[in-house]
Amino acid sequence: MALTLEVLWRRGTEKLTRSKIIRPRLDAQVLLSAVTGLDRAQLMTYPEREATEQQVQQFRTFIQRRSDNEPIAYILNNKEFYRLDFFVDQRVLIPRPDTEMLVEQALGIIEQRIAVGETPLVADIGTGSGAIPIAIAVNEPRLPRIYACDVSPDALAVARINSERHNVADRVFLLNGNLVEPLPETVDILLANLPYVGTGEVGSMSRDVLAYEPHLALFSGPHGLDLLYQLCEDIQQSGTLKDRGVILLEIGYQQSELLTPMLKNLWPTATVSSQKDYAGWNRLIQVCL
Ligand SMILES: C[S@@+](CC[C@H](N)C(=O)[O-])C[C@H]1O[C@@H](n2cnc3c(N)ncnc32)[C@H](O)[C@@H]1O
Hints:
The structure is a single chain. By secondary structure, this protein is of the alpha/beta class. It has 2 domains: 5-68; 90-288, Rossmann fold (3-Layer(aba) Sandwich). It is built from 11 helices and 9 strands. It has helices at residues 5-18, 24-36, 40-45, 53-67, 72-76, 100-115, 131-139, 153-165, 207-212, 226-238, 256-266; strands spanning 79-81, 84-86, 122-125, 146-150, 172-176, 187-192, 241-250, 271-276, 282-288. Helix 1 (5-18) packs parallel to helix 4 and helix 10 (226-238) runs parallel beside helix 11. The longest helix has 16 residues, at 100-115. 38% of the residues are buried. The chain binds S-adenosylmethionine. S-adenosylmethionine is lined by residues 92-93, 95, 99, 125-129, 131-132, 149-152, 155, 178-179, 193-195, 216-217, 227.
């Protein structure tokens, strides 16, 4: 007997509830929408509509995967970031809404530079899916090139899919290597959302993140600061940044008090400032040389 959308939604919600998934009804709806191509309003308007056998099978598979704690973004191979759809799978961290703040801030600085006749050269370190440089390239077509570096060739393969999807593959240059090492020239603006979770925080992390997202994209030493420290020392020693260069770093909730003194020590004449997220945490550090 054919199953209606209402029955599928209810059964999906029940299974996710039994598996202790936090938002069972919403997750079941998102997966049912993806399978049927109907949005939430349509699902509610036509609950008696019958699903095809293929839709039923795919929905069951999706619900099983979500019951196993797989994030929806990996199940659907999609995550929206800065109003753009990005392909994601387990090779990359799922871009977080928090990181849009870094893109917003970078676009503001780029705009100011362009307004005075400059063409700033931008690099993103630890690019993952390419969300940051691709969002910038799409929103600032006047930038001829942006470097996007990652130590993981697997992550760069995903970034390639996304740069082609958004037609910026000729302006986003993907480079493989450790931190700033692969950069072929000095840059004006250096962005990074590197791993900043401490290995000591494993106990407080959700099952979705721990079991599915790449640990190379999450962890950075006992307090989460190893890579950020290393990056800043490398920038300082390698002279990667041009005069009047800017560094923008996404950081963890309580890391600005630890990072700020180190940054002031590395660049005594620089202006170091932090920016708070909507919850009032300092989540972005900006260093203006
Ligand atoms: C937190 S994820 C961020 C991904 C992406 N920038 C975003 O905001 O969604 C960190 C990324 O840094 C990369 N990474 C880790 N260690 C690195 C290193 N030593 N050099 C360059 N990239 C590194 C990881 O592979 C991962 O893609």
